[in-house]
Amino acid sequence: MALARDWPLVLRLGTAQTLAWASTYYLPALLAAPMAQGLGVPASHVWGAVTAAMLLSAALGPWAGRAIDRWGGRPVLTGSSLLAALGLAVLSQAQGHAGLVLGWLLLGVVMGCGLYEAAFAALVRLKGQEARASITGITLLAGFASTVGWPLSGWMEATFGWRGACLGWAALHLLLGLPLNASLPRAAPMPEPIRAVAAAGTEPPAPQDTPHPWTAWVLAYVFAVTWFVSTAMATHLPTLLMAGGATLAGAIAIGALVGPAQVAGRLLEFGLLRRLHPVFAARAASLGHPLGAACWMLLGPVAGPLFAILHGAGNGIMTITKGTLPLVYFGPVGYGRRQGLIMLPSRLAQAFAPLVFGACLARWGEGALWISSALGLSAFAGLMWLRSGTSR
């Protein structure tokens, strides 16, 4: 089995990804409020800096993918560990708005070249078409980033303050993330014709089984809307549940089911679904949120756990298909650059999802689920088109 053979690589890269997600994407959930209080700025300034970081990560995604296509994942991911340590150190020493923005912009570079898309591209550069099982393995490990990161951030903030927490994460990048990423195998040299294509930034030669010209656009839309829903739920789920009638304690308990459900979904993809074309797993995953929302709207708070499980499982599987679908449809040549371009709308959606869905929630309450469900169903429709619209 490919994953059993590659488990040392998966363990190293998955651990590094857990650290990277915990100390960037999941960091402001625990530290945004104390950062704002400590710097004497409104909390909106901190979230504005986080949004700017996400926008920067979107712009850098295609460049990072192209760099991995040319040189492999080790130099890019190693550099991201160094930049993460620097950005967190800058945050820890910030004395005002300028230091806050600078620190988050550095972390935006890290999110653009050091999270899942970069890890997936690094695996494809090393394993080619056989990377699917390893991609699943990495997402299984990094699926616990919030489970590990939030308690650790909370403990460090309570013990050492938010500045000490940032320094603690910076130290972990230097002591753990950097050695793990630096130990990744070197990618084999690219064949000269492909190297010339990568250097020019043009499209690589098309595979023999050429996909439909709109396939990349459909994938970009599907990933953007599903990531919008995922980020919206990550930031507003407790408020949404309480708007539907759940108590605060109940909303927190229901929200806690999302993480384990994501991991369960990834185990399902690795077990029962891994022998199927990943588009079938993506279709099932895109229906998870709409089905869960329908149960919630029909049955009320009693269906809250089912909603969280269906949403979480769908989100967990979709994370994997964001790496495997472009690989299956377009092949490994030029994967990093193409993946960066396909995921660019997703990162933009991620940056604006908290603000946009928060406005919908403030206006319509739990009725905002109609919007997120409609987006999920539109993603399902796009994925249904892929089978008939792509040369197989």
TrEMBL record:
It comes from the Bacteria. The keyword Cell division does not apply. SUPFAM superfamilies: MFS general substrate transporter. It comes from Hydrogenophaga laconesensis. The keyword Transmembrane applies. Keywords: Membrane, Transmembrane, Transmembrane helix. This is MFS family permease. The chain crosses the membrane at residues 46-64, 76-95, 101-123, 135-154, 214-234, 240-259, 368-386.
